[in-house]
Records
---
Amino acid sequence: MGLINTSGGGKGWNPILPSCILKNKFFLASFFSLVESEMSQEYPYPSHVHAASFVSVKLSSKTNYSMWEEQMMCLLESHDMLGFIDGTIKKEKYRGWNRSDKLVKGWIFGSLSEDVMATVLGLDTANNVWEKLRTTYSIYASPNTTRNIDKTDHLPLCRAIMRGDWEEAGEIFNRDKDALTVKLNVEGHSALHIAIDACKHIQFVENLLKEINPESLLALVTCHKENALHRAAMVDNVKAAKMLVEKNPYLLFSLDNMNNMPIHRAIIGSHETTFQYMLDACMRHITLSQEDGYHNPFEGRHGVRLLTNVINAGLLDVAYDLIKKYPVMATKKVGPYIPLLSIARKGDLYFSGTRYNFYQKFVYANLPTGNNDLSGTNKIQDIENQNTYNGNFETNGWKTYFYYVIQRIYVKFWDVALLKMTHVKHLHEDKLKHNKARMLLKCICKEVGKIDKGIDICRIYGEAFNLAVQNDTPEAVEEIIESFPQAIWTRNSDGYLATQVAIKDRCRKVHGILIRHLPRNKYLVHAFLDDDKNNTLHLAGQLAPIPKLNLVSGAALQMQRELQWFKGVEKFGKPKHKEIKNKKGETPIMVFRREHKELRKEGEAWMKKTADSYTITAALIITIVFAAAITVPGGNDSDTGKAIYSRKPSFIIFVVSDAISLFASTTSLLLFLSILTARYREEDFLYRLPLRLIVGLAMLFLSVSSMMVAFSATLYLTFGQGRAWILIPVATLTCLPIVSFVTLQLPLLVDLISSTYYHGIFAEDQSP
């Protein structure tokens, strides 16, 4: 019995089943079951799984989409079914693929609320259902995340965007609508992102936005979850930002993967213009932030980060206004973001952070600033208004009139100076900035003081206070102590009190403030001991931090400054404090000598090298002027032995200047030699060695100047008789070496005098 029937006209091969199989229904059913089983072996089909055990959240809105998605992904991954939603499992054998796809689709349907189910009814595959849910309920959804893109296909589009060629780009968009939203590079940038980054082709951005519907803008994000407004904020493209906000203001309140809104990105990049626009836009559309999936930039952790970044950017007026409108922003701590910490650590916002010379300090001190209220305008007070004066002209007579005239002259002078003198204008701006910083600091401290829990207050001001002490910012330290008196007892992470930190880290400016706010007994400072039983004298004996040490140039002057600091701290202690030993059995002076051993050697080498150089110069001058003294210009009279030009005024000038040069150079030589032969004890660097160098340099300046005057007088005596005009070039040329020498060496002399006699260490602490 054959399986093939060749009868029936021979019209083809007709497979037939054996009659025994046709008669056996059970075998027939088994046959088809076997075929179906073989077809489905390539596709997983875990029908026994109870999906509700994995997915406990029913998708109902954007609020719980992230949790629902996370649970559903775990279910699919654990049973190798993820390919049915991302499109990677192909339907090569339809029956088996369709069976598994329907299972995944059923799992998804079983985890949806009725309202959400209505949005996906009629979709045929699990992939279509998944994509519809993602684009509808995920804020960060991108319609092209699953599309396999060949980047080379989009090179013409990228080039057209960079050139701003809308004609060519428009043709590409007409051929492929997906090109409007497709990711064009590895960062996930779309055509809109790239066009915004280009900045210069704003018309291209406008045309592009006309082709994109407002809802799609929220889904158009990069791999870092940055929407188009994030990019506009990052590149300071304020024109594009305005277009985007007009198109969809919800963009203002969306987060990227760093939890930054566009307004945060603008201020982090210090893009003031874009930030100001976004700040106004956020306040106009703030009600939108209350909807599901969006965030308020002025509340909670987002508000604290915003205020902190505004302070870091130096926008003190904006920070002040934000605190007035949202005072809670100033009272929170979110990780490293603490507004009080930000304003306290920015030393450049205060006068103590400047390095003005004497003239600049004088101008700064006398500059009027008028109304310094951060919420108002910063204009000089109009004292021409008679109401601004104390007293009345009619009753006080000429005194009030005189005061009135002086005040008018004073204000007019500064008005003209601010208009005509750039450096005065800069100093005025600095003074306004410093005053604003003090007011903002006071405002933040006031708001922090309103916190109910004392431990929260301590945690907020503690870090700010310690950092202000470490950075040597006296304005911040004083304001925090006045607002929170207990702050002076704050310890840092190493367990040191503020006074110990100030002494250990050479915080000269804040030390006096800390001492003033301690109890009356200044000896109390030395009662504080650290874990190694070091008192404050031991801490003062330690080597200063390198940044503080390098504020003084030259190893010898550094050694002198360290000695001055150590001696200054000693004044606050009793004699017994000098003899106290730490755990290592060292007294404070022993610690000082050990810590400064290398610095003392470097200072000795610097002193000897400097003195050696000047010794050679002084010796040469002695040789020259001594020879000139015994060979007078013009010679001597053969009969009397007197100098021929002895009665000439120029000869007298020669003799006096030559003698001064000889005596001064000899003195300087002896002083430099004494430096070379000194014992170089630590105490010698305080006054003895610097004084010798100061006097030696001063004598050397005098000897060089006198030598040049003597030489000029000699030239005039020899060649200038009857030619008075020769004095002009001689005097001019004489000044050249003198000015050169003084210009090159005077800074060292000034530094030596300033460091030795006007160092100002502990000057504010000398009150009884």
---
Amino acid sequence: MAVTTCLTWMQEKVLQNYFGEKQFSLLYKASVHGFSSKGLLERCSNQGPTITVIYAGDYIVGVYAQNNDKEEYVFITLFVFQETEISECKIGPFQLPMVFQDNFEFYVNLERKRMYISPETKEKLGLSGYISFQECEVFRCEDLLDKRRMEGVIELKEKLLSAIRTYKPYGDLVHQTRILLLGPIGAGKSSFLNSVKSIFRGHVTNQALVGSYTCGTSDKYRTYFINDGKNADTLPFILCDSLGLSETEEGLCMGDIPYILKGHIADRYKFDCTKPITPGHDNYIGSPLLKDRIHCVAFVFDANSVEHLSKEMVSKIKRIQRELIKCGVVHVVLLTHVDTLDMIMKGDLMDIYSCLPVKLKISGF
């Protein structure tokens, strides 16, 4: 059974950010490996930078050491972490074993589950009184994107790109899957599309217009074939961009959505916010084939504002969802700007779906 930390996801992220975007690897947990100073030192010495986390009721006392060589004297960062606030002070120099032996400034007695901090240091940290604790953990601190992790990132990227290149629509009924991007004006639909095209072309491209206009920059229905710069093939999906949704009359006309889904609207049709397309229009496809239909809809939302959507916008989205179910079209949520969310670090982007802020953002869908 794997040994897990008592830190919550948020506590771990706060500490990782505070000490310079570090990745924590649990080396020692007192309740599992024993409340023994000797046992701790045997497991944790010569591991490079470490952080010791001591759980003392409603707050955490911690020790961060840049080097934990038994023989070397180093200054350590002693800190107190309560809720989301951290106070710290530098003490030492110490040899690592001295932290777990009687000394005049600070030491931890694992066997008795007690901690001594000098009155002067207590005052700096805002502590008072007798300190006992229930648990002690030690982590190795590593750079988030060291050489080993960078190799993992590159490997993961190549696997994902290969999976996309070799994807085949179900039953070979069509050669390419049509994916419609729908979302509020300014959510980042066109920017996402440009990013996808840039990745596969191997250089930056801005084919789809982007901007911050309140009425949106995509006023036409566009279908984008994605060319693969690696082998000159066209990828097995088509991205379809449209005018964004709005609470006002400036956005996509709701009456156009069934026509888009059923394949009646041709590329470059210019939307009219006040009325849907009609069968007599030059861009109207009278008898669309299966390949012309939308096979998947991606609702695109800005991760920083998705929980602040207006009642009118939520109502429109639910109405569209009902239409999608009626037409048998699958739909997914696509969050943009996830890298700018609080507590998200570079290393999280490898497994973004497991990150608590992202989970909370998509839980409503």
